[in-house]
Design brief:
homodimer; globular; alpha/beta
């Protein structure tokens, strides 16, 4: 019997799950659930679309519900609510609020006896795992995380709120010299400015003062003031033609010393180069859906993160197969 | 109370454990156990040295015993034997024999109620984990593992067995062009020759026929015939001065496609650059010793591999601390 997956919320991540489930023979998609009118939602495949009001009454037909809303307002409510009825997986990525989200979701899932996996994806997610593995191996060392090159949605939004801006995309770019210094075990202390640059592609409204817009971007506190920022003004056509992609990626490095007197240096590096950020994130969530299902079958319950999942639960292969083929 | 560690066997790996335990505040070293006369063993620190005959009678003073023997003859016997009395961790690395070793160790540890972690290190170990994580995320993709640059003990030994050879070191070196082809998502099918080259530094005995030695190396089946091999003849002094290091490393890559029609490519890359292969391996074993201890405290038993260990068990930090600092 296949693992029956439901998708709650149908944006880029939901579409990614729709594709990812097709790549996993042991899973099937029950439906997409939306707050919109179902007939207005056009899916990539012939998966049924239901209004979210139908979700709870269909609970016996779904093994794992994929929470595909946003971290700002959707997930803090939805994951807590639906963990009362379903094993759930979400991609909650507001790092500072993870402890609070964990506590709320855990209370809900402990009561229902379900598994709720939160903060799954690549950061938080795979990057977190690599930070943990790096830390436990190289105890006397330093952590470095670099993001990009990729679009930061939050920074793009911040530019769009500036008066006179019609549209914008912002790329976060890791600084090669900083990466090289880390890789050569110089253990640099890197400022915000030294780690990443920001490159902005901005469509100005007709007649807008471009010099003022550029100045407002470059001096914006928190978002840009601490970075070396480049601003390019382009047309809407150029933005749509050249900057529609959702590629992203990044690097997690742990460097550290071993030996009686720390005489040996080591570098652990994990990197991702992704053509589609939401589709890759969806693939990670889908693997953790399998783990959620299997862990719950074994009687486990409550809120879990990637730290709590033994890797074998992620794979459809048996322990014997994993040991023979991948160990 | 600290986790009390014993070291069984005192070679490079044992010395690495001796150093690694010092970097972990929640652990202490009880002693080194050896088949040699204890007074002949010179340790790096003031850890007590005992004859192996004392080991079993000291079982209540040791929480986890680190098995530091070789995979060829020591570990298949020792891990099975000592799992009857101790939580144990070994670095068994004969990939083809892992299923058999697992079965033997599991029988022993299930009966004693202990945890026996086998095949811990970087390959098998961290590389295996990255193969697994890569596979479960990118379902439609390819795996690539490259080793080096680093010394292969087995290949160095094979050269030393050739008539007229006094000493030798062999480096395995990944081919940059192959790595680049993988990273650019060309999904190449790589032959043995295309993935790695072999570089040999050989000390010939006085009067030996160097041309014949070189020919014997380059045509040796399994070890060298399928590779582009370079042979350098050097003096014993040069070998000892320039090739005494134990650096190693390698790369695990998973490339794959996502999207409705596989239109998006992704690259996951994990790499290690190690000044000391045995010290890094020891650090991995030490982290898994913590997991073995904690999992056994929770009532788990039997043979485990890195696939079976939820990452949180590896860290001395609490779940709350991990979620706040590393997620």
């Amino acid at each position: 019997m296949k693992i029956r997956i439901g998708i709650m919320g149908y944006g880029n991540l939901g579409r990614g799950i729709e594709c990812a489930v097709r790549q996993n023979d042991d899973m099937e998609l029950v439906g997409v659930f939306t707050r919109r009118a179902p007939e207005d939602v056009e899916t990539l495949t012939d998966v049924p679309v239901y209004h979210v009001d139908k979700l709870i009454e269909m609970k016996d037909t779904i093994d794992v519900l994929m929470m595909c809303g946003g971290s700002a307002t959707d997930l803090p409510k939805q994951t807590v609510e639906y963990a009362k009825y379903f094993n759930v997986v979400d991609s909650f990525d507001t790092h500072a609020k993870i402890p609070e989200h964990f506590a709320n979701v855990d209370a809900s899932a402990m009561e229902s006896g379900k598994i709720a996996m939160i903060s799954v994806g690549w950061d938080p997610g795979m990057f977190s795992l690599n930070r943990l593995y790096g830390n436990v191996i190289l105890r006397d060392g330093n952590d470095y995380t670099f993001w990009g090159k990729g679009v930061s949605q939050g920074h793009s939004d911040a530019i769009r709120r500036i008066d006179g801006v019609q549209d914008a995309k912002q790329y976060t770019i890791p600084v090669d010299a900083a990466l090289d210094a880390v890789r050569s075990c110089e253990n640099p202390t890197l400022t915000t400015r030294q780690k990443h640059t920001r490159e902005c592609f901005v469509v100005a409204k007709e007649g807008a003062d471009k010099a003022r817009i550029e100045e407002e971007i470059k001096t914006m506190p928190n978002y840009f003031a601490d970075y070396d920022t480049t601003v390019h003004f382009i047309s809407q056509e150029e933005l749509e033609r050249d900057h529609a992609g959702m590629h992203h990626g990044g690097f997690v490095l742990r460097t550290g010393k071993t030996g009686l007197n720390g005489e040996h240096n080591h570098v652990i590096e994990y990197s991702l180069k992704l053509d589609s950020n939401p589709e890759f994130t969806a693939c990670v969530l889908t693997a953790y859906a399998r783990a959620a299902y299997r862990m719950n079958k074994e009687g486990m319950k409550g809120c879990k993160t990637v730290f709590d999942v033994a890797p074998a639960y992620l794979s459809p292969l048996s322990g014997e197969e994993l040991r023979s083929h991948l160990l």
